[in-house]
Amino acid sequence: MRPEAALTQRPPWALFAALFAVVSLAVYGLAQWQPFAVDAPAAAGVAGGDAAAGQAVYARACASCHGAGGEGGVGPALAGSGIGAEAVAVVVASGRGIMPAGLVSGDEAADVAAFVAQVSGGAAAPGEAAATRPGGTAGVIGVRLTGLSLALEEPAPAAWGVWLEGPAGRLRAGSIDAGEGAWRDADVDDGQTLLGRYDTVLVGSTADDPALSGAFAQERIDQLLALLIDDPQRAEEGSALDAAAAQIDVLSEHVRFLAAARDEGNLANVRFHGEHMVNITRGEPLQDVDGNGDVSNPGDGVGLIDGPGAHLRRVGLLIGPALTDRDREAAALAAAIARDGEVAGSAESVTGAAQAIAAIERADARLARVWARLRSAAVAAAVVELQP
Amino acid sequence: MSGLVAPLDVASAYADVMETVFTSAIAGKAWLATLAILLALVQICTGARIFGKLAGVLPFDGGTAASIHRWSGRLAVLATLPIVFHCVTILGFQTTDARVAIHSIVGSFVYGVLASKLLLVRVHSFPGWALPVAGGTLFATLAVMWVTSSWWYFTEVRFGF
After folding, report:
1. Which of A105, A200, A293, B98 could form a disulfide with A165 if both were Cys (CB 3.0 to 4.6 A apart)?
2. Contact yes or no for A24 and B104 at CB 8 A
3. How confident is the model at residue A154 (pLDDT cuts 50, 70, 90)?
4. Which residue of B has its CA nearest to A37?
């Protein structure tokens, strides 16, 4: 018998029960605490959400998982759940379980939050403040960063002004009414890009003594401008996001060509377009995958996944660490297309390539969805915290 | 802002690690839970062998069975650690629907059952039926956890790495 085997002659049931209770309660307590829960600045614009407009957004972005009427499906039922607009906004912005973050953003996120809150029966009363601590967030919104959105954690105690300040001087962006918690203007300064000209948001009775303020770091401004407006690391004009989107479009177009070659039973074209899968995704050095003596590449040679300037890597770098999981998912799909492209590009028969082509079609369809989410998240990435 | 940065860093780092192997963190959890439940099955079989059952099915002696039992148990616990980290510290206790509620409630007890079972292994003054019952209970809780997570994921979301 081992020495520890006989702590007592009578079974220590109390110790048994206590151990079970203490460990279980500790796990439960930790789960309630959620020390590493991602609490994203998600409530931007919620109070201004339009439930009617949100219904269309819901049908497009949410119904496939949560059901057309919010009855549930892959995702949990929302109808009658009592979830409020603020909570919906948090989940939409930060994701939950398999639901990715940033499925919709900006006005659409506020609208869909209002709609879901209505369906769930948990809509907040107009003007109700969701949080009690002071502060809030300011987001530069729009693909061209032309607008500004505020979400205050306490309603404005009086009519407050909103100003932007930076190298271009000071600009009065608008005003927020007393008792309101949110404000937005999609076009603050005649459609001109705000970041780069302004770096600070001021909110309060006067700009000289603001109640709340927040400033974008110059490094973040440069990243956002490269991501959404013009990437200085590229020879051509245009943003990193647009450059990546253009190559994803080229890839998708050639996936269709590859499928057409399969349907026609044309082995030479299957191999030819299989080579394109490899070269579009991996970029230079280009490969003669089909072995016909010619290197063929309809892409820009930069590639989506390999090399320091690869489009998806660049977008991931610029968009920020909180969203790199989207970028990684997109890159994993592009890498899978490259691998299966090698198989198709060197296949001995059309039948032999069929499985790889089917996998490429599936990965391409997923890539389109992931990319759409990544793009939405990128456009909503310019958020700064407002503090007293 | 300081309250926001650390959780994001931790959650991102966790996702980064999981996504070096799997396509997503949740896919990783589904497969690790599957590994854990398979090892738990090994536990059930070798546990039965230690108690003199299944001798015709498992043609090795009780000492070998005990060794397999210990190592499969250690590996099973190791496999659950990333899952527990994600579920408990990032996702937390949720009751959004019946599946999630059952998963959260039963999940709160898994390590409690495990700790109690280990106590039964160490302290021999408990009645003989206690250890098999505790082992069976632990397997049952793991099975509920697997059905409400991995099985759901494989059948409702996707079956793949």
Report:
1. A200
2. no
3. confident
4. B90
**Residues A304-351: pLDDT tens digits?**
987 778 898 888 888 776 555 667 788 889 999 999 999 999 999 988
CA distance linking residue B150 with residue B147, whole number of Å: 6
* ipTM entry: 0.90
B89, B114, B123: residue with CB nearest A30: B89
* Domain of residue B36, residue span: 2-153
Length of chain B: 161
Selecting from B92, B124, B157 the residue whose C-beta is nearest the C-beta of A37 gives B92
Give the whole-angstrom CA distance, residue A110 versus residue A88: 9
**Interface touch B19/A1, C-beta < 8 Å:** no
DSSP B102: H
Q: Does a structural domain hold residue B158?
A: no
Q: Given a cut of 80, is residue A283 above it in pLDDT? A: yes
Tell me the pLDDT tens digit for each residue of A139-152.
Answer: 888 778 888 888 88
How many structural domains compose chain B?
Answer: 1
- Report DSSP state, residue B127: -
Size of interface A-B (CB pairs under 8 A): 137
Task: Count the alpha carbons within 13 Å of B126 in the hemisphere toward its beta carbon.
Answer: 21
Does residue B47 fall inside a structural domain? yes
